[in-house]
Structures are given as structure tokens and as C-alpha cells.
Write a structure and sequence with these properties.
single chain, alpha/beta, Quinone Oxidoreductase, Chain A, domain 1, Rossmann fold, 2 domains, seven-stranded mixed β-sheet, six-stranded parallel β-sheet, 26% strand
């Protein structure tokens, strides 16, 4: 075992504090990664606060990890010492079910994907995430960060980037398609960048016009305030695809009415409360409400290469580890543009 410094929540809703954790020895097919940057995702806050159910404590959050390989196991063939790599929302899966074999490890129906933190590994030990100095993962669950991406702006792509890239690709965002992104935050700003780069006509639907200039600069063609009832009148029947990134419950019936015939409203935000919807707008337009969870390893690599090819990463604010608790408060207050990234050298 290797002892490393980390920031952990000792109990539900407790402030994070500096501590030490143990990482497993480097196995035959493992890589040891010196973590350089770790993004702060709203999911981290949900789980620290037990908003999604009972959690495992102490908890070291963080599933947006960018770093450098410092040791490899004897059987490793994909990476060598010095390679720039990333780790996202999961670190293993059954590897045998139809979804794992299809590169959809996030939907593993065998033993299930093993999440990067707040989960039990195959040896029964809790997993610990990226708010730490180092992590050990199987080579098959790391991805290569292209040279065209700096590690700090690449870190949030391991969750925020792939969370938007996967549904945008799956539902065919591209030339001739009208795509709306609901919410311009850590997830939403990546949705705007990616949908624009895919060639879609992009609209931001945000509660207010406060971030309109940002949205247009990121690649949006249009920007509307959802607090204005006229928005829902003017845009009725407009969109092929709407991706909701917000983690609060919305009036989904209102958003469904913005879809064209056969349009889809895809939710990637994860509200803690159930939502209700009127089925008649679905029936009368052959519309659908769907969800999407991150992406598999191959698609995550594809997303990183896509972002590098188009010359963008996340919009970030780099912070010291001592600022994590303040950053959590600022995320809840929507006071970040658009992703906090921890410089793990400060742990």
C-alpha cells in the first residue's frame, strides 16, 4: 500500500479536510498516476451531502482526474511512465456483459461499473477519488490526454465533457439540427462548445440573460431566458434535441413543448427530487424524454481527441485544495465560470 495525502469529507454534510488514504500496490495491469488536477463536479457535492442516498465515509470525491503516469505494472502495454492520462467517473466494470463488450461500460449489467469514489472496489475496499496526490487504476480504465490539451482544462472533460458529448453524438447533433442546452454551468458550457463544434445550431435556455455574452462567445447562436414566459411561446416546436444539464427539478412538460415532432429531451442533470410530466405533449408529438450517463472508455477517448482537434477544453478557475469548501458554496450559488479545478500540488 502507498499512503498519500487527500481531502475527504469525514461524514455527510461535513466540511472536507486534509487527511491521508492508502492506495493499493501497482498490480500487473495497473498504472500509478500522479494527479496534477482534479475538477469539482456538482456530483461531488450531491454525494458529500448524501443527496442521492446513503454514502460511504470518509469520502474522497473527484472523478475529473488529469495526471501523469509515474509507474506501470509488468503487464501494461497501453501506457508508459511520463504519459499524460485521465480518469473519469469509473475505474472498473465486469468486462464481460454485452454493454462492456460494446464499449458501454457505464451501463455495465454484470457486476456494474465501479465508480471512482463512494463505491466498493472488487476487493471490498472503498474507492477514493481525485482530491488526492495519486491514484492506481487498471490501464483499461484510463484514457490518454492529447498533447493539444493542457491538463488543467482537460480535467473537467472526464465528466462534464463526456456527459455532454455522449448524448449529443447519440441523438445526432450536427449540421441541420437545432439543439438547445438548458443551463449554462459546468456541464452546460461544455454542451455549447461541443454542439457548436459538431455543427449544430445551438440555443442556450437559461433562467436569466446574465450569462448571455458568455454563451454567445462559447458558440451559442441564440440565448433565451426561461424566466420569461414568452420564451416558451416563441420557441414552441423548435428543437430536434434539448439537453438539460440542471440538477434542480424543471417543468419538463414546458420543455417538451419546445421539441419538434420526434424530438428528444435528454436529461444529464440529476435532480435529487422526482419530476412529473404531462404525457400529452409526448403523445401528440411522438416526442421522448430520455437520460444519458457519461460515456464508455472508447467514447471518452474520442471526446478528448475531438476537443483537442477543435482546440478547446473547459473554462476553469484553478484553486488550491484549501479552497475546496469555499468552492462548494460557490458552486451552489452558481458563482463559477465554469468549472473549479484543484491544483493537487497544494494538497
Amino acid at each position: 500500500m502507498t499512503t498519500v495525502a487527500a481531502y475527504a469529507a469525514p461524514a455527510a454534510k461535513a466540511p472536507l479536510e486534509r487527511t491521508t488514504i492508502e492506495r493499493r500496490p501497482v498490480g500487473e495491469f495497473d498504472v500509478l498516476i500522479d494527479i496534477k488536477f482534479a475538477g469539482i463536479c456538482h456530483s461531488d457535492i450531491h454525494q458529500v451531502q448524501e443527496g442521492w442516498g446513503t454514502a460511504i465515509f470518509p469520502m474522497v470525491p473527484g472523478h475529473e482526474i488529469a495526471g501523469v503516469v509515474s509507474e506501470v505494472g509488468p503487464g501494461v502495454t497501453k501506457y508508459q511512465v511520463g504519459d499524460r492520462v485521465g480518469v473519469g467517473c469509473f475505474v472498473d466494470s465486469c468486462r464481460e456483459c454485452e454493454h462492456c463488450e460494446a464499449g458501454l461500460e457505464q451501463y455495465c449489467t454484470g457486476s456494474g461499473m465501479i465508480q471512482t469514489y463512494n463505491y466498493l472496489d472488487k476487493d471490498g475496499r472503498p474507492t477514493y477519488g481525485g482530491y488526492s496526490e495519486k491514484i492506481v487504476v487498471d490501464e483499461n480504465y484510463a484514457v490518454r490526454i492529447p498533447d493539444g490539451l493542457a491538463l488543467d482544462v482537460a480535467a473537467p472533460l472526464l465528466c462534464a465533457g463526456i456527459t455532454l458529448y455522449s448524448p449529443l453524438k447519440h441523438w445526432g447533433a450536427g449540421p441541420g439540427k437545432k439543439v438547445a442546452i438548458v443551463g449554462l454551468g459546468g456541464l452546460g458550457h461544455m454542451g455549447v462548445k461541443i454542439a457548436h463544434a459538431l455543427g449544430a445550431e445551438v440555443t442556450v435556455l437559461s433562467q436569466s440573460l446574465r450569462k448571455k455574452d458568455d454563451g454567445l462567445n462559447l458558440g451559442a447562436d441564440h440565448y433565451y431566458a426561461t424566466s420569461d414566459p414568452k420564451t416558451f411561446e416563441d420557441l414552441a416546436g423548435t428543437f430536434d434535441l434539448i439537453v438539460s444539464t440542471v440538477s434542480a427539478p424543471l417543468d419538463f412538460s414546458g420543455y417538451v413543448n419546445l421539441l419538434k415532432i420526434d424530438g428528444a429531451l435528454v436529461n444529464v442533470g440529476a435532480p435529487e427530487e422526482p419530476i412529473t410530466v404531462n404525457v400529452f405533449p409526448l403523445i401528440m408529438g411522438r416526442r421522448s424524454i430520455a437520460g444519458s450517463a457519461i460515456g464508455g472508455i472508447a467514447e471518452t477517448q474520442e471526446m478528448l481527441d475531438f476537443c483537442a482537434e477543435h482546440g478547446f477544453g473547459a473554462e476553469i478557475e484553478v484553486i488550491a485544495a484549501s479552497e475546496i469548501n469555499e468552492a462548494y458554496e460557490r458552486v451552489l450559488a452558481s458563482d463559477v465560470r465554469y468549472r473549479f479545478v484543484i491544483d493537487t500540488a497544494t494538497i
